[in-house]
Amino acid sequence: MRILVTGASGWIGSASVTELIGAGHQVLGMARSDEAAAKIEALGAQVVRGSLDDIASLRDAAAQAEGVVHLGYNHDFSQMAAAAQTDRAAIDAFADVLQGTGGPLLIASGALGLPPGRVGTERDLPQPGGHPRMETAAYTLGLAERGIRSMVVRFAPTVHGAGGDHGFMAALARIAREKGIAAYIGEGLNRWPAVNRLDAGKLVALAIDKAPAGAVLHATAEEGVATRDIAAALGRYLNVPVESVPADRAQAHFDWLGMFFGADMAVSSEYTRELLGWHPAHATLLEDIAAGHYPGE
């Protein structure tokens, strides 16, 4: 199958491209820069030029494919509403091309925002008033009524691995190095789900091959790692003390990350594993921290 991948040169996208090609698909990777194009070519995919805010380029690229893996997104928290609008317009462009074909349309969403305090499942709905991206996910699932095999992958907030991760773990490591302590909030018993980027890429390829229309899938290899264990692993590698920070000082210590790091959000992927035959096999979050993949520099 010919699959268009947005975000193909990115952290999850590059792993997904490799897995899709390995599964026998022909991949068209969207690039908006020469640097991204070179990365995509090195992965063995065909480059198509375009960007998420250029609807014509999205339509043209999708018209060359039989399905779409939409992983590109603007993660600037200061422009959440605008990013969600751009994302919705991109999905509409893909849907117009794929309508009635039965072709797959996979989009990325997040596990953040599921009901806290218990293990979340694929059947759970996000809490109201959360990230606007959640509304887009619900909209995408409804595209199944237009003859599209639409699906949503909720990725763990920590997609970890060797090299190139600029997400939450990289930010935590940088804060620990700058402030001289690896901190957690309160007792540190709250849990963060995690998945290795290579396992995440495998899940994307399996979903394209096997997931039915309207499927919600969880890319979480570990249901929840206690935040004090994350801090302890960072402390050992960075050789800094490990300390608790009171909840009322979390924002001052962690900056923007403080609003997330105190959340308790264990997330199951049991249904996803059974449906797709997905078996995460790569390093765990604590193993990747211990291996030095998060130097905080």
TrEMBL record:
<dbReference type="Pfam" id="PF01370">
    <property type="entry name" value="Epimerase"/>
</dbReference>
<dbReference type="InterPro" id="IPR036291">
    <property type="entry name" value="NAD(P)-bd_dom_sf"/>
</dbReference>
<protein>
    <submittedName>
        <fullName>NAD(P)H-binding protein</fullName>
    </submittedName>
</protein>
<dbReference type="InterPro" id="IPR051783">
    <property type="entry name" value="NAD(P)-dependent_oxidoreduct"/>
</dbReference>
<dbReference type="GO" id="GO:0005737">
    <property type="term" value="C:cytoplasm"/>
</dbReference>
<dbReference type="InterPro" id="IPR001509">
    <property type="entry name" value="Epimerase_deHydtase"/>
</dbReference>
<dbReference type="GO" id="GO:0004029">
    <property type="term" value="F:aldehyde dehydrogenase (NAD+) activity"/>
</dbReference>
<feature type="domain" description="NAD-dependent epimerase/dehydratase">
    <location>
        <begin position="3"/>
        <end position="96"/>
    </location>
</feature>
